[in-house]
Amino acid sequence: MHDIDAFLAVLPKGRARRLTIVGQFFRFAKAHKIVLVDPARGLSAKTPKGFTGQTITLEQQRVLFRRWTTDPSVHPHEALLGILALLHGASSNEVRRLRATDIDPVNRTIRRGERPHPVPVDPASWSILQRCLAHRETQRTDNPHVMVTKGTKAGRGPASTAYVSHVLDPCGVPPRMLRSTRLVDLVNTLDPKLVAAAFGMNPEGAMFYLADHIDDGRLPIRLWPG
């Protein structure tokens, strides 16, 4: 049953069509005694309430965390976007627009996007941020952004959306999934209104991440309060 729910949740807009196909298959299988019961029976074509997007498991988070904090061969941009999305729920847009002047080295905080207050940075994220700044220094650029590419080092604009959308390709997990993992954890364990205020989101945006049920394997690890 859970496998069928997961299959239907991959494309919420196609739930009704997918359920019809699954139902036909299992009715055929049951009629020919291939299966004893029809696991699709009783499932509704209506999209269930609550968050239905994809998140990553605890083990996946541990693997990614180790990759970004211990593997020197990983590009600094991948490590920065990945760790800020996973631990702090940062969006791709927030990371690509992050400027060197947004960083407070004394208090170890950064200002990001629409967030009303500086965000405290944990030691692991701070180390990766310093590595990314060191990489920026090698570019010999006047571009104020932390994430500087070959295409932006001669100017002052942020890295392109297209560039950032592929930064995490080597690890196989898109930024949105990492951000969703963090937000699902926060919204379902804290007051959604507080999360919305901290992230500079409207309350309705935070409520989107409420889930009626989350499998234990999908719950994110508490690495840092973010």
From TrEMBL:
Matching Gene3D superfamilies: Intergrase catalytic core
The UniProt record lists the keyword Cell division: no
Gene Ontology BP annotations: DNA integration; DNA recombination
Alphabetical list of InterPro entries matching this protein: DNA_brk_join_enz, Integrase-like_cat_sf
SUPFAM superfamilies: DNA breaking-rejoining enzymes
Key words of the record: DNA recombination
Protein name: Phage integrase family protein
